[in-house]
Design brief:
The chain has one domain: 3-Layer(aba) Sandwich (Rossmann fold). It has a 5-stranded parallel β-sheet with strand order 2-1-3-4-5, with helices on both faces. Helix 1 packs across helix 5. It is of the alpha/beta class and 195 residues long. It contains 5 helices and 5 strands, in the order βαβαβαβαβα.
Length: 195
Amino acid sequence: MKAVILLCTLKKTGLSNTQTLSEFFTGILGKQNIETELIRLIDHQVHTGTYSDMGEGDEWPGILEKIKRAEIIIFASPIWWNNHSSEMQKVIERLDHIHDGILEGNPSLLEGKVAGIIVTGDSDGAQTIIANISNFINAIGIVFPPFCSLSVLWEGQAKESTTSKEELMDKYRKEYSETAEKMVAQLIKYAQKSF
């Protein structure tokens, strides 16, 4: 079974809370022998637009092929002003072409795949992001099982925080391992039902 994590951090360099939590989650997936690829959207030339291929230099078509080959898709975003990042919005906009096909009466290219959502922040906003993303993925045929969101809201993840990667990982292991393990179990259970 394969998983893809669409990591929508805004940080080109330096410590990313969302990437660290995604790496923690990748470790939990690995315990269940799930091969996982973490794709940092900010490292790719993903053109602005609402089609699957926006022309020369656009790297989204290659990313979309990886999504199609995976059974599990994880949408990972930090919170910015009570919403997901601009990189996550770009993912949603690029996947909208699949929705166009559904409106034309075609089957979804992602129907039956299962998804989870990872969110990091320092105060609130996780519910809004989970609601927005789950509403969209439902509209394009992706299954969002119960208990398949992992959100960590902690002042140690604030924008100017000096929390180290080791401190973040330690907190995730101590306080979120059980939640992550339940999420992985649900993803596997529903992926097996779909395929």
